Amino acid sequence: MLHRLIALASVAVLSTTGAVCAQDIKLPPTMAVTAYDTGTAGFNIAVAVGKMMKDKYSTDVRVLPAGNDVARLAPLRAGRAAIAWMGSGIYFAQEGVFEFGVKEWGPQPAQITLSTIDCNGASLGVARDIGVKEIKDLRGKRVGFVVGSPALNQNSLAIMAFGGLTKADIKPIEFASYGAMWKGMVNNDVDAAFATTITGPAKEVETSPRGIIWPPLPAEDKAGWERVKRVAPFFNPHVASCGAGITTSAPVNMSTYPYPVATVYGSQAEDQIYAITKAMIVNFDAYKDNAPGALGLAAKAQTMKWVVPFHPGAVKALKEAGNWTPEDQTHNDGLLKRQDVLKAAWGEYAKANASAGEKEFLDGWMNARAAALKKAGMPNGFE
């Protein structure tokens, strides 16, 4: 105990608002977090942040890899994890769609602490040996999909939409997990798969005989980007300058969204989430270089007006870091109101349709969801 107190007292970090002492931040002695599969960017960043928490606060952080969004979020919902390092699946969980539209789930009060956008991009990586140059060239090719992972699958469909393609235009190949999908790329079982450019599996493909490319999604192609956003409104144009097959001297105009997103539930205590977020902010220098993409967790690098709200505890920490404006608050309040609308609609619908079959229930929910959002004057996002 004495050793822990001495260690805590010895650390002081300067934030944008002044000196912040480590002992002012209270973290639990143990913490579990979930992330994508071992070796992915999300897993590596989770490990880097966990090491910082161990070094600075003697908190033992267990990183639990999970192959799909449902598996990553379930421990958080059950209170067995403090954070789920998610991707765009946080949006689908909030909206209560796809795998989150079943009776066991529904719209989730998923909220953000910090997320990252860095030099990397997020798109379909394509095996170089098949000769594809543009997204539209994927017609008739094998594209990977992951069972139980609506985020990865919807992301792939969104990128394909840039080239005017739908699932009917390609050969979908299903895998049990993200890691298995990318092993399929190496083994020539599939030709394209979604990922962030800095993920470990993409690096494996780059060094394999197949090689890897990332077909461009130039921002000036307005029609292409309109098609992307109809499928996945959380994507934005981005210039990627790092990752598998990409260099600073040969960047690629492609796409991105915040990944990974340190996700919590709105029901988690404000002081708990404040402490976690504050620890990541004031100790940024301790982990920023320890995993590709971790630089994007800087307070000043946050995507402030995205599609999922920040948790009140994170808002408090961001305010203290000088990275929160009245406009940010207005946007956040609107997103919290959206979550309330979806929660109320789900409660009413689920109670009245408890005996419905699985498909009937999901189809009916999507109609009820659309009606509730329309009544509230909010966009559907899944027409």
Fold and architecture overview:
By secondary structure, the protein is α/β, with parallel strands linked by helices. It has helices spanning 2-9, 41-57, 69-77, 89-95, 150-162, 178-186, 200-207, 222-231, 270-282, 284-287, 312-320, 326-352, 358-375; strands at residues 12-15, 18-21, 30-35, 60-65, 83-86, 110-115, 122-127, 142-146, 171-175, 192-196, 212-213, 236-240, 252-256, 261-265. Strands 4-3-5-14-6 form a 5-stranded mixed beta sheet, with helices on both faces. A 3-stranded antiparallel beta sheet has the order 10-7-11, sandwiched between helices. It has a two-stranded antiparallel sheet with strand order 1-2. β8 (142-146), α5 and β9 (171-175) form a beta-alpha-beta unit. The longest helix is centred in the C-terminal third of the chain and has 27 residues, at 326-352. It starts with a helix and ends in an 8-residue tail after the last helix.
